[in-house]
Protein 1
Amino acid sequence: MSEHFVNIDSNCVSGGDLEPPTAILWVYHFLAQHFDYLRDTKKAMEYIDKALEHTPTLIEAYMVKARIYKVMKTEMHKP
């Protein structure tokens, strides 16, 4: 599965004509939400950081990052 995302990443970032430049941004954004839902905060943070690196002014990405931090905090305080 991750090989598929690497392929998407290389096509969008390298200027391929397959998708508009914002497509990879939203892929990163939704993958971060997906992995956050699965409680895989490491991967969620990795993808939301890629989204913020791509477009640092996207407010929605900061909201997702805050939710990821919230999950991380609650996971740390579980008995």
Note: The first helix runs from residue 2 to 13.
Protein 2
Amino acid sequence: MIYSQYSSTFLLQAHTFELPEDKLCLSFLSNNNTGEDGTVIFRGEKHYVPSRSVSILVGCKNVVYNTKRVCLLTLNRN
């Protein structure tokens, strides 16, 4: 099953892919606002979504990745 929800301005979106019989669920929360971060209440939980980013929720609950919070490991070579 695929579900989609949009805010009234279409700047905040949630797309959910779910197989209830297998207890599998994956959601993508997006904030298309170019200037303001947002807080989304999704399935009763608050999720902070920075502007112009997408959060991936495993189990439709836990944020495991956000496109704006990527940290890079750098190595300095001497």
Note: The chain has a mean pLDDT of 85.
